[in-house]
Amino acid sequence: SLFIRTSGCNLRCAWAGSDGNGSPCDTPYSSHSPEKNMMETEDVLLIARRNMDGIKHIVISGGEPLIQSAAVADLLKYTKHYRIHSTVETNGTKYDPKVSDNVNLISISPKLSSSTPWEPNLVNTGITYKEKWAIKHEKNRINIKAIQSYINDCWDVEYMKNEPDVIWKKERKHPDIKDFQLKFVVAELQDVIEIEEILEKLTGFKPSDVILMPEGVTTESTMEKAQWIAREAIMR
Question: Edge to edge, what strands does the sheet with 2-5 contain?
Answer without folding.
Answer: 2-5, 57-61, 85-90, 105-108, 179-186, 210-214
